[in-house]
Amino acid sequence: MTDLLSILDLAQLRTRTGVKWRAYEPDVLPLWVAEMDVPVAEPVVRAVSDLVAAGDTGYPASPDEFVAAFSTFAADRWGWQVDATPARVVPDILAGLGAVIEATTPPGDTVIVPSPVYGPFFRNPRLIGRVVEPVALTADGRLDVPALEEAFAAAVTGGRRASVLLSNPHNPTGVVHTRAELEALAAAAARHGVVVISDEAHAPLVHPGATFVPYVEVDPRGVSVLSAAKTWNLAGFKAAIVVAGPEARAIVDAFPVTLFNGVGHVSLVAQTAAFRDGGPWLDELLPALTRSRDLLVDLVAEHLPLARMQVPESTYLAWVDLAAYGAGDDPAAQILERGRVALSRGTDFGPGGEKHVRVNFATHPEILTEAVRRIAAALA
Predict the structure, then answer these.
(1) Dihedral-angle region of residue 255 (phi above 0 means left; psi in -120 to 50 means alpha; beta otherwise)
(2) Burial 309-344 (b: 16+ CB within 10 A, else e)
(3) What is the mean pLDDT of residues 163-183?
(4) According to the model, what pLDDT value does residue 84 have?
(5) Cα angle at 263 between 174 and 127, to 5 degrees?
(6) Contact by Cβ (8 Å): 151, 192
(7) Which end of the chain is more exposed for a tag (fewer CB within 10 A), N or C?
């Protein structure tokens, strides 16, 4: 089986023109933004190439093929029988999350986020006039449902409304929420009339030993938002699907009809091909990601023995506590300056992110090895 992370070397990756490889100077190793250093899956290459060769690059038609491809993928991978009727196709996951927030909470009301978490969970709700209330994860990085329920009760006092942004699996820790944890969250949300909005961008990227559970399988009042972008490295092809639970149909019915206008035809074709025909490529990717994760664990143990790293159960992102190295709340800044390695700053992930970095290990093993050596030297 091909190791998809060993195909592209540093020289080849330096020719890429996207933000990952162009945001920093050429001597910097970029292990920051959530983008993998892999070739594109052949079914996607073929689908997009055929489209461009035929000049078929106009406005998108019905998203039915995209929804059908995703529904088949979800049934095959997770046994999730998606009801296509209340599903909506949107420009990307953040657009979908924003649309659900606007449909469930008026301006001035609260969006609750387990923290630390993906930075836009803080920024984007504030941009549309909502109040963001962070609730700390437990010491082992899991959902603190009693603390969340306290926040629910406070947020809905006086007849106000609230929603929760859930990262499932969790970014940046890589934790895969268990069915029991999600059921407890759903029960607490129901008691207070809170709507849970689940960002499931990394859902297919689960390592052995963990099982992804789609949130709407445990909460008929909830909403899940998914895309092929993270799994097949298709951030440049924007599209996502919002799946409402059986009791949440009114939420997606409230979406503005113009929301679909932001979806591109080529993006729909690319992501449809990924969900429909990209399974074999994904089956090659997953063991490569697990090998890379395990390599990072070994490298951290060898070169950064004072670091505390939670072994991710999913994603290609590792959350590393560097407090013992005394580099302040933002060790990524010192690592970039002294080691020429770009990592995601822990402070970008909200309260609890101080003294942490997020490491993207979806890269060539030689690059990952050199990056950890540089990080250790920068912190020495």
Answers:
(1) beta
(2) beebbbbbbbbbbbbebebeebbbebbbeebbbbbb
(3) 98
(4) 83
(5) 60
(6) no
(7) N
Tokens 């143990």 belong to: 301
Residue 133 CB contacts under 8 Å (≥ 6 apart), including other chains: 110, 111, 112, 113, 151, 154, 155
Residue 35 CA to residue 296 CA, distance in Å, equals 17
Strands 223-226 and 240-244: antiparallel
- With pLDDT > 90 as the criterion, what percentage of the chain qualifies? 98
Average predicted confidence (pLDDT) for the chain: 97
Write the burial class of residue 278 (CB in 10 Å: 0-12 exposed, 13-18 middle, 19+ buried): buried
For β-strands 356-360 and 317-321, DSSP reports them as antiparallel
Give Cα 228 to chain centroid, integer Å: 11
From CA 41, how far away is CA 61, in angstroms rounded? 24
For 154, phi then psi, to 5°, come to -70, -35
For residue 86, the model assigns a pLDDT of 87
Residues contacting residue 290 through CB under 8 Å, at least 6 positions apart: 207, 208
pTM for this predicted structure: 0.97
DSSP-derived secondary structure for 304-346: -TT-EEEPPSBSSEEEEE-GGGT--S-HHHHIIIII-EEEEEG
Confidence grade of residue 2 (pLDDT, cut at 50, 70, 90): confident
> Which residue bears the tokens 């949107």?
90
Phi, psi for residue 320 in degrees, rounded to 5:
-120, 125
C-beta of residue 122 within 8 angstroms of C-beta of residue 132:
yes
Interval 186-238: pLDDT, tens:
999 999 999 999 999 999 999 999 999 999 999 999 999 999 999 999 999 99
Q: Cα separations (Å) of 85 from 42, 78, 239, 242, 253?
A: 30, 19, 18, 11, 10
What is the distance of C-alpha 133 from the center of its chain? 20
pLDDT of 80: 96
Helices (H) and strands (E) in the chain, counts: 13, 12
Mean pLDDT value of segment 124-134: 98
